[in-house]
Amino acid sequence: MGDIQLVGDIRGAIENGRLSVFAQPIVALNENSDINYFEVLVRLLDSSGRHILPAEFFSSAERYQLMEELDRWIISETLRLLENHWSNLTDTPIQIAINLSGQSLGSENFLTFVQGEIDKYKVPAECLCFEITETVAIANMQRAQHFMHALKKLGCSFSLDGSVNIFSHFFLGGSPVPF
């Protein structure tokens, strides 16, 4: 499938609700945990009804500057679903990991959007873990630090995806990253 068709499918999916979010459990094999961890995954339903995996459309979304739009949709939909099902989820504490793109992290208005969505949907910020890649965090260091500190004040946590090195420890202000 060509980039141009994928871009049309991505735009159409965002505008017409043809995206789906899934929660994949993250299970520690070597310990018991008092918290249930999940990572949010997204699937795109193309115009013919076929599910498209992120590996097939994220590079086009990145190339054509659609990742922030996708991240916004994913955050809104995840928080909406959490709010709708919260009463069924409160037996065991949960933490939901949501991946963020470099385009979103580099956007001036993205932090305000995330803060607004957390407030709008009344989902406890403590259950949200935003996942960013180490290279994105370093490339957008000042904005990433501001973003992380602002959302940590609300109770959100963060994890770095990729090989974490000693620089990341100092980049995060010495705070532990759970994953």
DSSP summary, beta strand count: 6
How helix-rich are the residues, as a percent range?
A: 40-55%
What class would the helix/strand composition place it in? alpha/beta
Assign the CATH topology.
TIM Barrel
Sheet having the most strands: 6 strands, mixed
Order of helix and strand elements from N to C terminus: HEEEHHEHHEHHEH
Residue fraction in strands: 15-25%
- Calculate Rg over CA atoms: 16 Å
Number of helices: 8
Task: Assign an overall shape.
Answer: globular
Low-confidence blocks of residues: 174-179
The average pLDDT is 86
Multimer state: single chain
Can you summarize this structure?
With 179 residues, the protein is an alpha/beta fold.
Features:
alpha/beta, 8 helices, TIM Barrel, 6-stranded mixed beta sheet, disordered C terminus, 50% helix
Question: What do you see in this structure?
Answer:
There is one protein chain. This protein has about 180 residues and is α/β, with parallel strands linked by helices. Helices cover about 50% and strands about 20% of the residues. It is globular and about 45 Å long. The N and C termini lie far apart (about 35 Å). The model is unreliable at about 175-179 (pLDDT under 50).
